[in-house]
Amino acid sequence: MARLVYSLILYLGSPLVWLRLLWRSRRQPEYLRHLGERWGFYGQRPEKPCIWVHAVSVGETRAAQPLVEALLAAWPEHALLLTGMTPTGREAGRQVYSDRVIQAYLPYDYPGAMKRFLRHFRPRFGILMETEVWPNLLAAAQASGVPVALANARLSERSARGYARFGVLARPAFGALTAVAAQTEADAVRLRELGARRVEVCGNLKFDVTPPTDKIELGRQWRAGLGGRPVWLAASTREGEEPLILQAYARLAGPDALLALVPRHPQRFDEVAALVDQAGLAMERRSRGLPGPATRVWLGDSMGEMAAYYTLADVAFIGGSLLPLGGQNLIEAAACGCPVLIGPHTFNFTQATEDAIASGAARRVADAKELGEQVDALLQDRLQLDEMRKAATAFAAAHRGATARTLALISRLPTNPARH
After folding, report:
1. Does 69 share its domain with 184?
2. Which of 13, 34, 144, 375 has a Cα-to-Cα distance from 216 of 20 to 30 A?
3. How many Cβ atoms sit within 10 Å of the Cβ of residue 263?
4. Which residues, in sequence order, are CB contacts of 408 under 8 Å at separation 6+?
């Protein structure tokens, strides 16, 4: 009955879904492409048996890379279907995997759309990345005999409380999962409390993502071109944070320091550029060239180059953490050997953040004022930066291995491609 009411609400809200797509298309016209897929209508069909991986957007798509590579190697006789929900995630999939995978949008969680999706692709099994638990999807998969695992699973205390409020709907969905590969023991406990079965702690797949060598080299080239100029990177910043970061930048004692400012969402590039202009700071866009001697802010309006920015930077602030947004993941920064500063709000990545701080790879700041003070102090203390850089590299190396553990769990699914 609860899922029936949920589905009815979805159907009644359909006009709002169309309005949202139209609204998002004002900045990203790609939202109006492949519309049929969002309701379960597809043209392409795999010629081989299919393995399905769902990664909602850019972060999950890139985090899935080591697992996708392992699946392609383990079952080369199968096609791999990669689904997502955003145009930026789809573009990230194209950049990372080229034509080695089939890409499509996962439908919205309407019962009929999910049945059409499963009937069209007929996956041998599915893997959902992180927290993509949808009641109608999992009910349709269970009815179709398609085992579905949750990989790289994380569940913050806040999210767990939210699911618990709708336990009559959430518990059957979590219970329908065939297996769960949790990032941490705390995640595993919360997932079990919501009804998930066969939960194993496998670690975080993002530790197994190797920074692309060409991007590392690009970052080194940028750094050489600056001639020793210190660089502070503000990475994956969110709405409301950029004014605070620009204020913190104004407090730096070193007049030649460059701020590389990389917003989380590409549709905000122009908005952030306007904020920099309002602050009266000389700015250059990455899309238009490299920063000159007079450039104070270099706006990172490019996609797929975070490893290059981390290689360029002396120290990085990880966005989404100055305001109560839950933070972004600092693992890629650590893998590039970049010292990290993080704000007070990191509830989406609690364990990784606390472990990085404990290892000396990261430091927490309370607010924008302290952020500016810490950046200024670190840029003037090369010894501290070197120690943090070594700690970051060691921290990233010590937590690898989640891919092998997750693949082992998947291979034990009750139904898997190896048995067909």
Report:
1. yes
2. 375
3. 25
4. none
Query: Which helix (H) or strand (E) element contains residue 204?
Result: none
**157 with 282, same domain?**
no
CATH number of the domain within which 220 lies:
3.40.50.2000
Identify which of 202, 184, 281 has the alpha carbon closest to the alpha carbon of residue 242: 281
Q: Of the residues 37, 47, 60, 157, which is catalytic?
A: 60
Is 223 found in the same domain as 187? no
Number of folded domains in the chain?
2
By the 10 Å C-beta count (0-12 exposed, 13-18 middle, 19+ buried), 384 is classed as: middle
Question: Could you tell me if 218 and 199 lie in one domain?
Answer: no
pLDDT (tens digit, 9 = 90+) per residue, 192-209?
A: 999 999 999 999 999 999
Kindly report, residue by residue over 22-43, the tens digit of the pLDDT. 998 888 888 989 999 999 999 8
- Nearest CA among 20, 15, 8, 43 for reference residue 136: 8
> Catalytic site residue 157?
no
Q: How much is the pTM?
A: 0.84
At residue 252, the pLDDT reads 83
389 and 410 housed in the same domain? no
